């Protein structure tokens, strides 16, 4: 979770973003990686997904991974990501959620299918507690496990700024989590 939110913690962050291709190569070799092709799906329907993936694919290649960057429209990528046999990695983004359990990747049915015994245990601890301190303890266990099991790779923060003309009326101060309310909006002449 982002700094400034109730669920922010630094637990496990020492495993994140080390910028060490030599260590990545050594860990891959230790894990038994022998240069097999890694099928990486991305869409050009969202320019930020594609741009980030070009950089990430290069970084992975520089670290010794054999990357097959497969480029699709969004509908095709969504269709293919439901088929675990046709991909190894896909790029997407996740918007802000007020509670970490609401991230789509936390569901065992979301592509990637993160569903391990410890994840289930810590998720149960998190969702069945009402004591904020105990919930935070479970959150820290989940985050440490996230960086240990790596169900996905956090590539950074992505911000979208909504800028409106001062002539626009009816926007109001509240928006939905990721989308603005654009009904009953008009421009002042």
Keywords:
5 strands, 5 helices, globular, 189 residues, single chain, two-stranded antiparallel ribbon, alpha/beta, three-stranded parallel β-sheet
What does this entry look like structurally?
- The chain is of the alpha/beta class and 189 residues long.
- The protein is 34% helix and 11% strand.
- It has a three-stranded parallel sheet. A two-stranded antiparallel ribbon has the order 4-5.
- Helix 4 (117-128) runs antiparallel to helix 5 (132-149).
- The longest helix has 18 residues, at 132-149.
- The protein is globular and about 65 Å long.
Q: Note poorly predicted spans.
A: none
Number of separate helices: 5
Alpha-carbon Rg, integer: 20 Å
How many strand segments? 5
Strand-pairing-aware structural class? alpha/beta
Major sheet size, sense and barrel closure: 3 strands, parallel
C-alpha geometry: globular
The helix fraction, in percent, is: 25-40%
Span of the ends, CA to CA = 42 Å
Percentage of residues in DSSP E strands: 5-15%
Strands across the major sheet, in which order? 2-1-3
Mean pLDDT: 90
The H-and-E topology, N to C, reads as HEHEHEHHEE
Outline of the structure:
With 189 residues, the protein is of the alpha/beta class. The chain contains five helices and five strands; from the N terminus they run H-E-H-E-H-E-H-H-E-E. The strands form two sheets. Strands 2-1-3 form a three-stranded parallel β-sheet. It has a two-stranded antiparallel sheet with strand order 4-5.
